[in-house]
Structures are given as structure tokens and as C-alpha cells.
Design a protein that fits this description.
- With 479 residues, this protein is an alpha/beta fold.
- It folds into 3 domains: 103 residues, Orthogonal Bundle (Arc Repressor Mutant, subunit A); 238 residues, 3-Layer(aba) Sandwich (Aspartate Aminotransferase, domain 2); 99 residues, Aspartate Aminotransferase, domain 1 (Alpha-Beta Complex).
- Helices cover 39% and strands 15% of the residues.
- The strands form 6 sheets. Strands 6-14-13-12-11-7-8 form a 7-stranded mixed β-sheet, with helices on both faces. The protein has a 4-stranded antiparallel β-sheet with strand order 15-16-19-18, with helices on one face.
- The longest helix has 23 residues.
- The N and C termini lie far apart (58 Å).
- The relative contact order is 0.12.
């Protein structure tokens, strides 16, 4: 058995058997083999399978293992070196860089090896990088046709808004391109809508538990957020009427389809009642479908029933790729100019390059294929997670990238999240989603797609389940 040197961060040089070294599987990755291997190296570093200081296999040995040429391995290693993911020395080998070695940004999130991120979204779609590479190549060929010599319109080029109307139609909502605004991601779309519709002395009404990004925007803009009671279907129409009467708020943010964080799905009947309340009380609705834009088997958006009062948001981030900051907003004709002017004040204009990539992916079916693959993989992960969560009270939906876990009575959400962090698992406490001065429930949100490997999901849930049975450890001096 052959032995080769291995160096881990902060440790002395040691040897490990060749058969125990990291070996990538690139058999299912399309495209040139050197690009596939370079991507596998980046993924292994990102996921913690290759920690700082780890030695990569010698090029000749890895070439034999993968059935490719030594030159192919060399090209892949050189790409990783240019990105400052690895460093190499003649006669010594190739090693994963430590944080201090890099002089250029390495574009990978800083995460301790072995930690599990249940807090943030990560696309579970296999071959996503390869599909984006193909789309980028198409845009490169079309670059000569793009108006690079001037700012595009704030609302986006008509070709991009047309693609946006096509994308929005996945939800069942029919909207002409003239009523679509192209944005740089769902968060920008929300910032535009709230900035345009809620004045400094006005109140934004939202579900009592809501997307944390809305709380962030409210704090940034110094806007008052007021909670509206929810149940297993989401926002309660009668509670909305009471909130309007109590606060005078005229703008309502809500997520009727797979609510974040509770995964609630509003019935068609409830949607019609919310639409009726909006008409009777002269309300403007901001309907956020950004988290589940890839979903097609679903109730019609509330915007279908009250299009003249609803700003509807769909995006690429959670359904196609978070790397493309693209969102499309369907807005009432009477509000279109107001929203477009607000976006212009916020950004002047968004890059037409990202929007062109998204438009091409919509036109050739790539975006649809990725969205469907995303939903298929999410459903698999929900099933796997639920099989391990028999001890928990869980709210789940197969189209969501998250699940909502109710904690035992001896845990608060913040204490549990801190304890989980010490165990190497990141989760999001209910506090992040609580609107106004409401009391956060004893609950946390977990992402079901923390890494490409489903065994990471299983390991994380095992840690959380064990932790839930334990009692909080009080810090010294804390009563």
C-alpha cells in the first residue's frame, strides 16, 4: 500500500494511505473533465470534505483513478490555484489553502469544516454549474446585440420583461410584459415595493410570522411593521380587517403560497376572501412568491383575483439559482410608473447581462428544467427529513426549501439555536421571523438543502434531535 504526505491546518505533517484520500466522483457531471474536476474540488472545500491544509491526490494517481490524462488533472488543479483554493509546491504536492494564504477573494463562504448550515438556502440541483456555464456561453455569443453603451431602462428591456411575463405565467397569473418590472433579485423587488407604497409615517401590515428579509427592510427604512394573526392557512381575513382598523395601514405584505417560515398553504377560498378585503378597504397587497417561483401545481395567486391592487413578485433565487439575482414583478397599471421611478431612484438600472441570461434560460426551457429538478430533489429531502423527525411537531411542504420545527417546552428558540451552533449546526430562531413586539414561538426553521449530500441532512437532524431532549445549560451568572 502506498503512503503519501498529508498536512492538516495547524497540525504536523503526517502520512495517510492513498486509499483514504479524498477522491472525487465526476462521472455524472457534464462538460469538459477538467472543469468537472475543478468544480468538484471547489464543492469539496465548500462542504468541508476538504479542510484547510488537506493534500489533494497526486496528479498521476488521480488521473489513473478517474481514467483521464495527467494533463486534464493539471488543468483542473491550475484552475483551483488561480482561484486560490489550493496551492502547490514542486516535489511536495497540492494543498487546500488556509484563509491566511489567499490574497484574492476565494468566493466561497467561510465555514468551519464539519459544520452544517441549516440556516441558509443552497440549491440542491445536480449539474447546476454546468447548465449555467452553457447559458453564459450563449450570452457571450449574443453580447454584440446588447446595448452596452448606455443605461437600460430602470424597469428592464422589453425583451427581458417579456421573458418575465412568461416566467410569471408558471404560477397561473397572466400578465402582459408592459406590466412587468425586471429587478435584481426578490429582495430588491421587495425594497422597491415597500419604498414606493409605505411612507415614513405609515404602517406595513404583515403576517405575525413572516420572511425575515421584510423585517430587515422595515428596519433599514424605519418603517413600522404591524402583525396580522395567522393560522394553518396563513393570514386570517378577519384579523387583517382588525389590523387595518387598529393601525390605519393600507399596504399588506403576505406569502399565501408555502409561507416562509411556517410552510402554510392558503386555500383558494381564503385567497378570494383576502382579495375581497383588499377591495373593500382600499388596500395594496404585496404578494411574495419568490421562495416557490418554480412551483406550478398550486392555487392561483391572489393577484389573479385582485390584479388592480396586487404587486406580485417571482424570482430565480430559490427556484433556479441564487447566483442570478433576477426577479420579475407584475404590478397594477396604475402603480407601474410609481414603482419604476422608485427602482430608478434605488439603482438607476439593473445589469442587462443577468437578465439576458435569465431570459435565455426561460426561452430554451433550461430554467423550467432546473426548477422542476429543484422541486423533485426538495421532495426527496423532505421525505428523508420527516422520517427522522418523528419526535418533533413539524410543518412541512415538499416545495419548500425549509421546515418549521416546534421545540420542547424547556427550550426557547434563541437558546436552542445557540446550543445547536456550539454543536456545529446553524438553524434560524423564530425571533428572526416575528413581526413587531410579538412573542416569538418556541420554534426554529431548518433548511432541507444544506449541501449536495443527503447524509449531511441526516447528520444535522440527528444532532438537533439529540439536543432537543437535553436541558439548556445555563451560562455562568445567568439566572
Amino acid at each position: 500500500m502506498r503512503y503519501i504526505p498529508f498536512l492538516s491546518a495547524g497540525a504536523q505533517r503526517m502520512t495517510v494511505p492513498m486509499n483514504e484520500m479524498w477522491k472525487p466522483d465526476i462521472s455524472k457531471i457534464e462538460g469538459p473533465r477538467y472543469l468537472a474536476l475543478a468544480g468538484a474540488i471547489a464543492e469539496a472545500i465548500d462542504s468541508g470534505h476538504l479542510s484547510p491544509g488537506s493534500q489533494l491526490p497526486p496528479q498521476r494517481d488521480l488521473a489513473q483513478y478517474l481514467g483521464v490524462t495527467v494533463g486534464t488533472i493539471g488543468r483542473a488543479y491550475n484552475i483551483a490555484k488561480k482561484r486560490q483554493l489550493v496551492s502547490g509546491e514542486v516535489g511536495r504536492g497540492t494543498f487546500v489553502c488556509s484563509t491566511g494564504e489567499a490574497t484574492l477573494p476565494n468566493f466561497l463562504p467561510e465555514r468551519l469544516p464539519g459544520t452544517i448550515d441549516f440556516a441558509c438556502y443552497r440549491s440542491p440541483v445536480f449539474n447546476l454549474s454546468e447548465q449555467l456555464t452553457h447559458a453564459l456561453a450563449q450570452v457571450t455569443a449574443r453580447a454584440v446585440l446588447m446595448p452596452f453603451h448606455k443605461y437600460p431602462p430602470a424597469e428592464g428591456l422589453l425583451t427581458h420583461r417579456t421573458a418575465g411575463a412568461t416566467w410569471i405565467r408558471r404560477s397561473g397569473l397572466q400578465v402582459p410584459p408592459e406590466r412587468v418590472i425586471a429587478c435584481g433579485g426578490g429582495q430588491q423587488a421587495l425594497l422597491m415595493a415597500i419604498s414606493a407604497m409605505v411612507g415614513a409615517d405609515e404602517t406595513l401590515l404583515a403576517e405575525e410570522l413572516t420572511y425575515s428579509g421584510v423585517n430587515s427592510i422595515g428596519a433599514l427604512l424605519s418603517r413600522q411593521l404591524s402583525p396580522v394573526a395567522i393560522d394553518e392557512e396563513g393570514m386570517i381575513p378577519e384579523a387583517l380587517e382588525e389590523a387595518v382598523a387598529a393601525t390605519g395601514g393600507r399596504c399588506v405584505y403576505l406569502q399565501p403560497t408555502v409561507h416562509n417560515p411556517t410552510t402554510a398553504m392558503m386555500s383558494d377560498a381564503r385567497r378570494r376572501r383576502i382579495a375581497d378585503v383588499a377591495r373593500r378597504l382600499d388596500l395594496t397587497l404585496i404578494e411574495d412568491d419568490a421562495a416557490i417561483s418554480g412551483m406550478t401545481e398550486r392555487p392561483l395567486p391572489i393577484a389573479h383575483y385582485v390584479p388592480e391592487r396586487t404587486i406580485y413578485i417571482s424570482s430565480f433565487g430559490k427556484s433556479v439559482t441564487p447566483a442570478l439575482r433576477v426577479a420579475f414583478v407584475a404590478c397594477p397599471a396604475a402603480l407601474w410608473e410609481r414603482l419604476a421611478n422608485t427602482l430608478h431612484a434605488l439603482t438607476l438600472a439593473n445589469s442587462p447581462i443577468s437578465l439576458e441570461i435569465a431570459s435565455l434560460m426561460i426561452a430554451d426551457g433550461t430554467a423550467d428544467a432546473i426548477a422542476r429538478a429543484n422541486l423533485t430533489e426538495l421532495a426527496v429531502r423532505h421525505t428523508a427529513a420527516l422520517a427522522q423527525l418523528s419526535e418533533w411537531k413539524v410543518s412541512s411542504h415538499p416545495a419548500a426549501f425549509f421546515q418549521w420545527l416546534q421545540l420542547p417546552a424547556h427550550w426557547s428558540a434563541t437558546d436552542f439555536c445557540e446550543a445547536a451552533r456550539r454543536e456545529g449546526v446553524s438553524v434560524v430562531p423564530a425571533d428572526n421571523f416575528t413581526v413587531g413586539n410579538g412573542v416569538p414561538p418556541r420554534a426554529v426553521r431548518i433548511s432541507v438543502n444544506p449541501a449536495q449530500k443527503t447524509n449531511v441532512l441526516a447528520k444535522g437532524i440527528e444532532i438537533l434531535t439529540r439536543l432537543s431532549r437535553e436541558r439548556p445549560q445555563r451560562r455562568p451568572g445567568v439566572v
